Amino acid sequence: MVSYKDPPRGLRNSSTKRKESYPPVAPNFDRRPYRRDPSLSNLIRNIEKNTLYHTEKSRTRTRDAPDIEYKNHPWTRRRKLQNYDEEPYTHMRITFDTTTLFAQNFIVQGYDETAYVTATILPRLSAFFSAALKVVPIARNLVVDATRLVENSPPGSQQPQYHCGHKNFGVVPPSHTKKGVAETDVIVYVSGSYGTIDGEKDEFCDEEAKTLAVAVSCSTDQYDRPIAGSIHFCLKKIGESLKTRNRDLMLHYNMDVAVHEMSHILGMSYNSFRYFRDSDTGIPLTPRPIIPQMTTCMDGSVREEHLPSSKILKVSFSSTGAKRRAYIVTNKVRQVVRNQFNCQDLIGAQLENIPTGMSCFGDHWDERAYYSDSLSGILGQDGNHMSAMTLALFEDSGWYKADYSVSELSPWGHGAGCGFVEKDCIDQQGQVSKPGKGFFCPSKDSHGCNPGHTHKADCSIFSYDGAKNIPQNFQYFEDPKSGGIVQADYCPIYNGYHDCRNPDNEPSTNSYWEEFGTDSRCFETQTRTDLYSRCYRSACVKDINKAKVLVAGKWHTCNYDFEVIKVDSFRGLKITCPRLASICPDLFCPANCAGNGVCLYKKDPYYPKAPPKAKCQCYDRRDTSPGCSQSLVIEKTWIDNEVELKNVKVSTTRLFDDVVGLFENYPDQWSKKSWIWAGSLVVIVGSVSYLIARYCCARRSTRKTERNNERRTNTRNMRKRTKDIGEQNGSRAARRGYIKGSSSDTREVSMDSEEITTDTKEINRS
């Protein structure tokens, strides 16, 4: 049954399942993407060649090694025509042997790095793959094939040691090749170094600390399933990550690398593809013995290779031969990748076409087509997804059953159509092609968002120094030495640098109502002065199949992809809506239908601009699960109804926050237009302020003069009135015959004095 978890408030896209709150990238951390050095790829390939190749090319486990004992293996009982009711597959048990890791490094330099690997990385790695993959459990002990180990005699030792893959890798105890290891389905020997081992340079871990880990398989069972391998950590690189202030970010990054390398052990390797089997019958998809053939590899070289059958891998060439592509064409992988891009014409999932060491067709998914995938050639800092495509590959090997609940829908090219995969990323006019809009960028000055819209991003365009230009079929700019990363066919891609989900990234001056938090996403915006990306709270709404964004306290609806919403006329703020399939991938087919059905993208005939609605049509018509997988647990990253979203009251910002914020955030990226606008604004504001000040001063002076004149006039009037009253009283006394001492006359004079006093008060009041 399909079960649902309670939805969070607002939006959480698939990238938040393991990465709820990335801290910002540390200033002292190198944000260049991780990739394995080509020389290491050559070394690993040679190790696998000696480990997995058998002289007969018919099986990977030698006949001298005993078969692994399984209980009720479906391929065995089918041959015996036996039926069992119990499910033969259970969650894979993984054992990590860390004896060599501690022996190499416990006393040498530090305990922190070793403890970090054993106590933090390995338990998480075991839990992840145990949840992701099921196998037929080994009934008794896992016995390692001793003939595939590397013999080495360390200095001062009387007995030779046997290593898994290489003398610098983990030591396999003799008991593991005889008695075996109980209660496990895979054993991984863990080792590590700081750059030297026993006084000799470690060729896997350079002193510049560019490599984090390498891994290789070294033993298989009778059905060619890898049952033993080595993972070798470069502890100097681990130590660097422990010194950064963003330990959570580095843990996610280290885990992405560990998952990537562990996947190579389990089967994501060119040397493993040829040994894939039919999942129902166990019959090898590549007939045995495997006959070598002459073939043209991705680097253009022609050499003899033991190729997988056409049921597993197909190679195509362009008419000019300039572009060679190799595809994994197994059933589930092919259907998942078709559903991912909404292109049912794709022949399969493309492998990397840029040479990575000596591998003829590559060990990774193509970077150009699957940039966000955790098994592409490069791991970025802003989101790597364990995709349904990679889990489908494990299932198509015949060795595993996958639980697609751990997969994440990649936003990269999601639902963009066949043109995203087949057309050039930049057209002849130097503009991003329509299918690539939102994923690729046209210039180094472009600002946008990463594929999942969790990070603000800038455009990754590099200048390749050297005598040779970029290959002509990959030249997208006037400068023949400018382009994106090599592994992505030199396509310029937005590289995330500022996480919208981290509340600590809130800017000190917030002129445009940005909001940072778990539900915040990146949006491309335009104002009167700039074209930049900004972070706003957003939500995916299932009932209307649309995304909404909260700006200035009001929820705005994105009615169609790349719609421009006018938010604030005073600031000229406009927001460009992203692709719904990128910001809300979980509104579409869960796990890309797990390779068990077709994802049908249906357009609204009455509103063709609206994003399509997608639904799985399962091959098994009795299967009514949303993702064509009964074990799939869907985590709700959407809200069901838009009525749950309420507008909020926000405080208004100061008038000049726009200019202050712009200069504070991007002082070195102001255009000439921005400077002219800002200078003009300063002149205008200064002039207006000066005129207002002059007016206020003049008005104040005028009012003061008027008050003084009024005061002098009142004083003169009062004096004149007093004089007139005095003269009147004197005349009145003379007429009455005033005689000093007479009481009646005294009363009259007193009354006249009161009149004078009253008149004086009236004058003063006036």
Automatic annotation (TrEMBL):
<comment type="similarity">
    <text>Belongs to the peptidase M8 family.</text>
</comment>
<keyword id="KW-0645">Protease</keyword>
<feature type="region of interest" description="Disordered">
    <location>
        <begin position="703"/>
        <end position="766"/>
    </location>
</feature>
<feature type="binding site">
    <location>
        <position position="364"/>
    </location>
    <ligand>
        <name>Zn(2+)</name>
    </ligand>
</feature>
<dbReference type="Pfam" id="PF01457">
    <property type="entry name" value="Peptidase_M8"/>
</dbReference>
<keyword id="KW-0378">Hydrolase</keyword>
<feature type="compositionally biased region" description="Basic and acidic residues">
    <location>
        <begin position="703"/>
        <end position="713"/>
    </location>
</feature>
<protein>
    <recommendedName>
        <fullName>Leishmanolysin-like peptidase</fullName>
    </recommendedName>
</protein>
<dbReference type="InterPro" id="IPR001577">
    <property type="entry name" value="Peptidase_M8"/>
</dbReference>
<keyword id="KW-0862">Zinc</keyword>
<dbReference type="GO" id="GO:0006508">
    <property type="term" value="P:proteolysis"/>
</dbReference>
<keyword id="KW-0482">Metalloprotease</keyword>
<dbReference type="GO" id="GO:0046872">
    <property type="term" value="F:metal ion binding"/>
</dbReference>
<dbReference type="GO" id="GO:0004222">
    <property type="term" value="F:metalloendopeptidase activity"/>
</dbReference>
<dbReference type="GO" id="GO:0007155">
    <property type="term" value="P:cell adhesion"/>
</dbReference>
<keyword id="KW-0812">Transmembrane</keyword>
<keyword id="KW-1133">Transmembrane helix</keyword>
<feature type="compositionally biased region" description="Basic and acidic residues">
    <location>
        <begin position="29"/>
        <end position="38"/>
    </location>
</feature>
<keyword id="KW-0479">Metal-binding</keyword>
<feature type="region of interest" description="Disordered">
    <location>
        <begin position="1"/>
        <end position="41"/>
    </location>
</feature>
<dbReference type="GO" id="GO:0005737">
    <property type="term" value="C:cytoplasm"/>
</dbReference>
<feature type="active site">
    <location>
        <position position="261"/>
    </location>
</feature>
<feature type="binding site">
    <location>
        <position position="260"/>
    </location>
    <ligand>
        <name>Zn(2+)</name>
    </ligand>
</feature>
<keyword id="KW-0472">Membrane</keyword>
<dbReference type="GO" id="GO:0016020">
    <property type="term" value="C:membrane"/>
</dbReference>
<feature type="binding site">
    <location>
        <position position="264"/>
    </location>
    <ligand>
        <name>Zn(2+)</name>
    </ligand>
</feature>
<feature type="transmembrane region" description="Helical">
    <location>
        <begin position="675"/>
        <end position="697"/>
    </location>
</feature>
